[in-house]
């Protein structure tokens, strides 16, 4: 969950626009954690971020985007806390619950135990946990069908890598996957991606291979761009021309590697197409912002629902950024001066290199996943069987 230096201006303004996620901007009073407290009138939402904190251009920023949207529409007050260590998340959750926040959100599977413990102590407070499940009457567990979006990324990679006439594509028919922490949730991304590749191999009679590597076995593996670059360069050197990552800030190193070699990357969680213009083919969006917004809205409207809520392609909880043209995030980056008009043109030219029949094929595969004609394997469910 790498803080990209070039994005300072964008980070502040996108919050106001509600276009791409970012940290909690604005004045406000400083809390005990040294974090601005966004001022509203009555309804209060608190969120404890995961490793990497605000400005990661990924998971945390997406959650904050949802709060910004809710703030704009419902005049809520929100506060974020950035624990320096995973073990400090419990303290942050308890602080928010003790101070009367109507909804307390924990970001990431690593806060499961903390949310479980604190929600048990504060039964009158509503909680939400992103990316894992806590079975309590006052906890909404917000989960995503990352495997579905990753399948699309895999299918796109497998189709495009066979087109060596496309700039940046070699004749090896090899693609890559870069994971952050080697653990079940990230295996869910990996299996979705490799399944997409295998689907195309079966449909087209191709033999595209996938190189797989993880940055580590601890939470720090999500915030190690140097390691990400090292792994990506190795995969590119060994034949890969497209690498999909599910590694948080570690992916920042992947983007730099792609620019160095002239190959391609696929972003994750948020729209990362603009981060390295002309080298990020698309991004697998994980719409944490939508899930957070919907949860805040439900609590605000006295319609809170505890239990597991899944967001997939059908619910627009996951998906790919545009394969033609650019999305609102890229346009905002240009408007704010974080990227130039030439950068935007580079992104458009890159996407124009993707053959139209491939774009149509991806849309067709998406429809088939939603209809159930294509069933994408879910690593987490398979591992429980």
TrEMBL record:
Signal peptide: 1-25
Pfam families in UniProt: Bmp (PF02608)
Lineage: superkingdom: Bacteria
Record localization: Cell membrane
Keywords, in A-Z order: Cell membrane, Lipoprotein, Membrane, Signal
ABC transporter substrate-binding protein PnrA-like domain mapped to chain residues: 45-377
Signal recorded as keyword: yes
Signal among keywords: yes
InterPro entries in UniProt: BMP_lipoprotein (IPR050957), Peripla_BP_I (IPR028082), PnrA-like (IPR003760)
Membrane topology classification: Lipid-anchor
GO cellular component: plasma membrane
Family (UniProt): Belongs to the BMP lipoprotein family.
Protein name per its UniProtKB record: Basic membrane protein A
Organism in which the protein naturally occurs: Selenihalanaerobacter shriftii
